[in-house]
Design a protein that fits this description.
Largest sheet: none
Distance between the termini: 41 Å
Strand content: under 5%
Helix content: 55-70%
Structural class: mainly alpha
Number of domains: 2
């Protein structure tokens, strides 16, 4: 019975969020409501929350920068057909905006995975240090 109720609730939320293009607005509204609730309950904690929210992504960026500095050939953009910086707003219908060089697809995916892993590990290192 509980599983059925939860299933209906999840489907309702998916239908509500999936049918609109304003999903990010709803997320920002939820964050704003939680922020206002925190401000009403404990305003002295606002600087601490902002500090912690900014520190974790900063750790992720540092982790990614360290990874790319240590292994410069692991930069995924090195395996594209053409340099993405020449046309950063490229929009190709039906195909990838920036094609991967033939034969380098697996290396490109590995580089993407390693960069994402470095970002996540940097965030975790900073987050666990808090």
């Amino acid at each position: 019975m509980l599983r059925r109720i939860l299933g209906v609730a999840v489907k309702g939320v998916e239908a509500f969020l999936g049918s609109t293009k304003l999903q990010i607005v709803y997320c920002f509204l939820a964050v704003a409501i939680l922020f206002l609730a925190l401000w009403a309950h404990s305003p002295q904690q606002i600087p601490v929350v902002v500090y912690k929210l900014l520190l974790a992504p900063l750790g992720g960026l540092a982790g990614c920068c360290v990874w790319l500095a240590l292994v410069p050939y692991a930069n995924p953009s090195r395996y594209l057909v053409k340099d993405w910086r020449s046309d950063p707003d490229a929009d190709v219908d039906g195909k990838a905006d920036f094609e991967v060089a033939p034969g380098y697809e697996a290396i490109f995916c590995t580089c993407l995975f390693c960069a994402a892993l470095a970002f996540v590990l940097g965030m975790l290192a900073v987050g666990m240090g808090l």
